[in-house]
Each structure stands twice: as structure tokens, then as C-alpha cells.
Amino acid sequence: YKTFDGDLKWDHGDVTYRILNYSPDLDSSVTDDAFARAFKVWSDVTPLTFTRLFDGTADIMISFGKKDHGDLYPFDGKDGLLAHAYPPGEGIQGDAHFDDDEFWTLGKGPVVKTYYGNADGAMCHFPFVFGGKTYTSCTIEGRADKLPWCSTTDDYDRDGKYGFCPSELLYTIGGNSDGAKCVFPFVFLGDEYDSCTTEGRRDGYRWCATTSNYDQDKKYGFCPNTDITTIGGNAEGEPCHFPFEFLGKEYDSCTSEGRGDGKLWCGTTASYDDDKKWGFCPDQGYSLFLVAAHEFGHALGLDHSNIRDALMYPMYSYVEDFSLHEDDIEGIQYLYVPFVLPKNTDMCFFLGSKTDPKPTVPQPNTPTTTATPDPDVTDFTDEPEPTNRPATTTSTSPLDPTKDACKVTKFDTITVIGGDLYFFKDGHFWRKSKKGDAALESPMLISERWPALPAVIDSAFEDILTKRLYFFSGTKFWVYNGKNVLGPRSIEKLGLPDSVQKVEGALQKGKDKVLLFSGENFWRLDVKTQKIDKGYPKYIDVVFGGVPIDAHDVFLYEGRTFFCRDQFYWRMNSRRQVDRVGYVKYDLLKC
Amino acid sequence: WSVPLKSVFVTFPGDVIKNMSDTDLAESYLKKFGYMDTFQRSGFQSLASTSKALKRMQRQLGLDETGQLDMQTLEAMKQPRCGVPDVAN
């Protein structure tokens, strides 16, 4: 999973949403239910709650729109882009927009709720039998008033259950007429209209007057789509006309002829060649529930995942029995579930920590005691026996004061331990206290402070929760917990590929994740499970734009990320903007 | 009788999606979803090419990283999807 730059998220758990308008494709109750279920997907795995508002400003404002719909990201007609949403924040942030040039369904074709009739508003059942004939869509057969209807069971002849299908002859959506039906013909700007029209609107929505004269009464509403309404095109949702003529040939069904994209279309008059009126044919449509659940993931702070089965994967695919993928759960819980330290965590990783070694005379690089393996311990059992190497109990004694950090042009690694900066080079390290004016301490020997480590350290980090120190050198790593050490272990055990020859930087991300850098890639390590997360590696410059891709030290210091190359650093703020490029020597070492 | 049917593509009035060449489609896709912008904003890449952008896109979408506009990549670009860019700008 991926979160947005700076881990954007809501600062409150009671998130509000408001549905600003509805698609003509679905009954409002079906839409309301789809959105409610989409929010439940996330509230089921977090402490978040979602409350619907009916007026005012909500955190998540939901709307349907077509093409240019008021932000900088226009939709593109049928198919292609389905929807988009903004990460949490004020204004447009957090809002979700759905492309109303799509055919919105629940993923398996038209969802047609009935009105009136004798089926209590049940959904149409397609196909159904009427008069011995099978119907796959609403029909006006059998009715003199031309109102489309359907059976709500598979056999009307047997069950007699029916209702009327959405139609502008029954009701309108939105507008200012409280759902009144269209009145045909009606007058608009002096012209007479016999059907719904998009005239007078830039957004492409079909509307009608609900009195005989719009110019006079100004009463209107939007026309619902039906399962025989065409989508997109230029026929304002008129149904297909079969047969229709196209390039001199007659068609009795929808065709993809004439199009390079394979989409099915039809003429809405007897001759496309003469009238040029057309629209796309209704298909399975897109599940509003699935797309909404994905978009709400964005609205809560999740970016796209590269796990194909995850909900946050950018492409749409229909799944019948949806359940949230582990990757999505981890992502949303990373943002919203307070971290709870697992029971006995402190004892899990370090055999040595279970014993309380008596202080001994320090013998650098010579193990003095060995811990007894504990049967309860399950981690780190596949490598050389962990050793318990007591380090000096007092601070490390300064060595050669002539070794001048200010003359080092390239450190092996730079890291932050206990808030202080540590600079490592060729068996020595320097500490620069977080207190701004404190002088750089004289160089000290790595072997004295951390006897198990080699002279060259490629990377290091302190786990902020457990205060354990992780050191990387070549393809090995060591973990220090106070005086106790575990390692060396192979970095392959963490899940890094064998092509990684060294880890060049480590960046704490959240409480239990650390990004490990090597070459132009980085991986995310779950410190708790000691495994690399799925979906990695990623390219450094895709996520961290504007920094050298050959940085050899990466670390987090005072809330900012530093990428070092030679004597220079690139500093990046929490919004991942490079806000300073400077010298390690002057700005960090204060030489 | 064995002459293959010759498809005639027409421009449908009001159609938002025009018939695009594969290359145009790829370029538009890579730009729209952030894969191309990455190159423009950073001065450190030496291989600032469509091929590398394609590789990144292929990695993100779990495709074979060929760096080529192959069939599977082209098909992926034609799939319905979310409009949020894959690579943050």
C-alpha cells in the first residue's frame, strides 16, 4: 500500500460525507446504499465512523459530473477514467467525483428499481417471460400509455408481479420540482420539446420542464436513465432504433463497426447516415459500490497500491463477493489504528534481553557470554547463535582527536540515535548532540561502543519504539538492544533480493515501518515482522522527486529527510518538497 | 470470398474519445498518470526516456517490465481505471 505524501489523513475519527447529486442511472436509494456500504468497508477495519450530512460542508463531498466538472481534472466520456478523489484536507480535499458518462450499476448490468405496480418497489428481474415471450429489458408491450414496465420475477405470466421502470413520464430527479414528472411538449426559449433535452446546459445532463412552459414557470427536473437509454454519444439518451442504417448497411443490434475501440453503439433513428444520431449501448456497467470504496480509500489517505488484488489498485475489475485485501487493511490501519505494542515484544527478538548479564571487563570483539536459547523465542533462530556482548557501561573513550570530521568528504553513513546525529567513517564515529550549540564530540571507536560491528557501516537506524539499533554493512545486518546484539544476519532474511549488495540509507516511516534504500530503489521494512512489505521495491525518484538517485546516506532528522551525496545534502520536508540543498560540513557538523 | 473485411472508422459527432494511435495513447497515459512528469521535474536521471517511463508504469501495474509498448501494456492502458495519478506530482 501507499499513502499520500506526508501521510495525509483526517485528524478526527468521525468523518462526515454528503451526497450532492445523483446519477440518472440508479435510483437514489440504490446509490445511498452503495455509498454507505463503501464507507462500511473502511469502518469495519478502523475506528473511523462515517456520518451522512444533508446540508452544509462535509469532509467528503460526493458528486457525479461529466467531462469538465469543476476541477482541474476533466473526465473523458464513457470508460477510461471512472472517478477520482482527493486526499484528506480542507476545501476540495477529501472530495470524491464520479464520471456520469459511465453506466453506473452494481457491476452486473442495469439495476432497475420499480415504481408503483404491485411489487413494492422490487428490482426488475431480467430476463422475464410475458405472454410467452422473453424480455431482457423493460418494455412498453401490453401498455397503451407507453410506460415501460418489467416483471420482478422470472415469469410474469405465472406470478403477475410487476412495476414500472424509471421514466421521465413517472418522475424527475433533482431540479426544483420535487420529483414531478415531465410534461411534454414543453416550451424552452421559445422552442417546443417533445422529449428530454440537454439544450441550455453545459454538463450534458438531460432535463425537462415539469410544466408546459419552462420560460414562464421555470420548473424543471432531470430525466432518469433507463435500461434502454443510450449512453454518451449525441442522442441525449434516446433508445436505440432497430434496425438502423450505417454506411449503407442495416443493423438489428448494437455494433462496434466504425469504431477502433470495440465499443458497442447504435443509431437512435432509422438512419445514422442521414441523422448522425447515436449512443453507446448499455452494458454490464461499473459497480458504484466498488468504485466508491476505492475512491473513499483515497479520501481517507490511501494512494494507489501495486497489488493487483487490492482495492486500491488503480484499475477497475468486478468481483462478485468483495472483501478487503490485506494490503488495503494494512494501509488504512497504518493511518488510523493506534499502534499497540504486542505483548512481550521486548522479549521476542532478543534472547540476550532475557538475561541480565553481569558487567564484565570490556573485551572488544570478543564474546564474553552467550545467552541460552529460550524455547519461547521464535525469531532469529535460523542464523548464528545470538550473542550477548556486553559493551562498556560507561561512555566510549575518545580516541585520536586529530581525526577531524570536518575533513571527511563522504561519510559511510549518517544516522540519528536518541535524537543526536551520528557520523560513521572507517571504524570511527562522531556524535553531534541535538542541542544546537553543542560541539561535535571527538571521534570514538565503533568497536568499543558496538563491538560486533565491522569498521564500515553502510546504514543504521534506531527503531523509535523499541530503541533498538539496526546496523547494515554489505549484505549483513546487526541489531543492538542496549548491550545485547543479534547478528550478523543476511539482509536476504528480511526479504531483500540477493542483487542488493548494501543498504545505503534507512528512513523511519511511522512507528513500525522503515524504508531501506539501495541503488535507485527502496523497500519498506516492517520492523515488527522483520519482513519487507509487498509491493516493493519502488523507484526512489518516483516517490522522492528532486533528490539524487545515487544518494549514499538517507536519514530522518528533526522531521525532515536528508539525502546525502558526497559533501552535499538535499533536505526534503514532510510534503516531500526539497526545501534546502546544503553542505554536510557546515550545516550538520557545524564546522 | 477470402478478402478480409475492411473496417472503416468514422468520427462520431460528440465522441470524447477519438481514435488515437497506440503511441499517442501511451504518451497521453504516461503523462496523465505521472510517469512522464517524473522525468521533467528531476535533473538526475540519465535515462529520461519513454522506455523508462513504461518500465515504471509496468512495475506499478504488476506487468512484465519490458520498457516496450507491448500488447499487455497497451491493453492495460485501455482498461477502465481511477483518475488519480499513480505517481504523485
Protein traits:
heterodimer; A: 591 residues; alpha+beta; five-stranded mixed sheet; five-stranded antiparallel sheet; 38 strands; 12% helix; B: 89 residues; mainly alpha; 4 helices
Record the SSE blueprint.
The complex is a heterodimer of chains A (about 600) and B (about 90).
Chain A: E1 2-3, E2 14-19, H1 28-43, E3 49-53, E4 60-65, E5 81-85, E6 96-99, E7 104-105, E8 128-130, E9 133-135, E10 149-151, H2 156-159, E11 162-164, E12 186-188, E13 191-193, E14 207-209, H3 214-217, E15 220-222, E16 244-246, E17 249-251, E18 265-267, H4 272-275, E19 278-280, E20 286-287, H5 288-300, E21 302-303, H6 326-336, H7 345-348, E22 413-417, E23 420-425, E24 428-432, E25 444-445, H8 446-449, E26 459-462, E27 469-473, E28 476-481, E29 484-490, E30 505-509, E31 513-518, E32 521-526, E33 531-532, E34 538-539, H9 540-543, E35 553-557, E36 560-565, E37 568-572, E38 578-583, H10 584-588
Parallel strand pairs in A: 2-3, 2-4, 4-6, 7-20
Antiparallel strand pairs in A: 1-21, 5-6, 8-9, 10-11, 12-13, 14-15, 16-17, 18-19, 22-23, 23-24, 24-25, 26-27, 27-28, 28-29, 30-31, 31-32, 32-33, 32-34, 35-36, 36-37, 37-38
Helix pairs in contact in A: 1-5
Chain B: H1 22-32, H2 37-41, H3 50-60, H4 71-78, E1 81-82
Can you give a write-up of this model?
The complex is a heterodimer of chains A (591) and B (89). By secondary structure, chain A is of the alpha+beta class. In chain A, strands 3-2-4-6-5 form a 5-stranded mixed β-sheet, covered by helices on one side. In chain A, strands 30, 31, 32, 33 and 34 form a 5-stranded antiparallel β-sheet that branches. Chain A is elongated and about 100 Å long. About 10% of the residues of chain A have low confidence. Chain B is mainly α and 89 residues long. Chain B contains 4 helices and 1 strand; from the N terminus they run ααααβ. The chains are: A alpha+beta (591), B mainly alpha (89). At the A-B interface, strand 5, helix 5, strand 34 and helix 9 of A face helix 3 and strand 1 of B. Strand 5 of chain A pairs parallel with strand 1 of chain B, so a sheet runs across the interface.
